[in-house]
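Please fill in the sequence for the structure shown.

STRUCTURE ENCODING:
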């Protein structure tokens, strides 16, 4: 597979990006991304490159992880998790992200 230069920093390459233990925010929770789900990521600046199809697949994987995480929690814990996620989202919006 041909390595591409990063569009963000112009110096890094995009290795497979399938490291275990990666976590991403999805809706209101931080969810672990399965190690077998590759996300092309710049090895210098960390910018992720996803096509529309890859982005939709990632959302499906993260949705499944979110449901799995919430299924074993009592309702009050789910509400607290949602509230914490909303606060983080508001802070990020205020910073312009």
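FILLED IN BY: designer on duty
SEQUENCE:
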């Amino acid at each position: 597979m041909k390595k591409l230069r990063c569009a963000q920093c112009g110096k890094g390459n995009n290795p497979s990006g399938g490291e275990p233990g990666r976590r991403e925010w999805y809706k209101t929770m931080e969810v672990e991304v399965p190690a077998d789900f590759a996300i092309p990521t710049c090895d210098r600046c960390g910018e992720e490159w996803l096509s529309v199809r890859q982005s939709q697949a990632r959302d499906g994987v993260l949705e499944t992880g979110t449901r799995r995480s919430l299924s074993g929690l009592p309702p009050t814990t789910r509400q607290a998790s949602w509230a914490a996620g909303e606060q983080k989202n508001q802070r990020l919006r205020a910073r312009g992200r």
